[in-house]
């Protein structure tokens, strides 16, 4: 995706132009590129499966190729190729990313408001930036805002080898916590261990509540970071210590039927939070603070970004199927076909 223009927020909503780039702008392989060549990378993440596709009428279970013309995808990195009138904070050639809004990043080109564009530091390559902006800021919220992890905490991270999960484990570990991670397959255990999990539970084979009770000698954990949702929600509450904190930030397996009964929290005086990125990036200062912490962690080596899967944009449906079949780990990046390596 290229940001064709950064327009003031008061202007028209985002518009995508899907014509291929001129031949002279097609790119050489990524590793040969100087940093500011317009390589273009789109995010893929599970919002698209779990919160968008379910809204589409059947029988279109994986209608992504047609969705190039609709509002799919909500995070991207690109090079600014034009700026709107009055925009002074960015210029043509700047590398920027955005996360969460506007929709429509499954496209070759996109127009976005300047107010959501985040400058990508020169030290961070495009694929890494495209892999981490949204996921990194999503990890920043639980660990640094909703429940601030401190040395000595014990933390349970579900889907520890997922895109956000991988970053959460690394970040909590770096902050001095004991990290327990859950994963669905043996293949994901190694990555979770490398990412700082002292204990990894294969929750498709073992009862994770029983294992957490064993690991914590019955004490439970200070906090659970849970984006799996329906399949883990009740068990997560059971893993918490007295006055523990449940941070539910997603629902990859589906939502638990709402409302959550207040009485579920009472036996241990539990705290339940459901943070969303948009509410922690309500203004430019908060947005740049969140992105800045993520970039600083990458540049200092606290966070290793796992861009484990790169697909062409035309393969988006396959990428979604792999994600849904739990065949992926770390981040997934879509690259427009004109950027084929
Ligand atoms: N609150 C926010 O503002 C915010 C922002 C962005 C994303 N999110 C949420 O954060 C969550 C993680 O995002 P992500 O980008 O890290 O996704 P991801 O890389 O796809 O990770 C999701 C993981 O969930 C696990 N999972 C469990 N049940 C699943 C199922 N039925 N289908 C697919 N995966 C399942 C899988 O790990 P295992 O195979 O190991 O179980 C998978 O790797 C998502 O729920 C997303 O909606 C929230």
Q: What is the SS-derived class?
A: alpha/beta
**Percent of residues in β-strands:** 15-25%
Helix and strand string, N-terminal first?
EEHEEEEHEHEHEHEHEEHHEHE
- Widest β-sheet, arrangement of strands: 6-4-3-2-14-13
Measured on Cα atoms, how large is the radius of gyration?
Answer: 20 Å
Q: Quote the CATH topology of the largest domain.
A: Quinone Oxidoreductase, Chain A, domain 1
CATH superfamily assignment of the largest domain? Answer: Medium-chain alcohol dehydrogenases, catalytic domain
Q: Biggest β-sheet: count, sense, barrel?
A: 6 strands, mixed
Shape: globular
Q: Portion of residues in helices?
A: 25-40%
The end-to-end span amounts to 15 Å
Discrete helix count: 9
Tell me what the CATH architecture of the largest domain is. Alpha-Beta Complex
Give the domain tally: 2
* Overall average residue pLDDT: 80
Q: Tell me which ligands are bound.
A: NADP nicotinamide-adenine-dinucleotide phosphate
Organism: Panicum hallii var. hallii
Subunit structure: Homodimer.
Pfam family, one: ADH_zinc_N
Domain Enoyl reductase (ER): 42-334
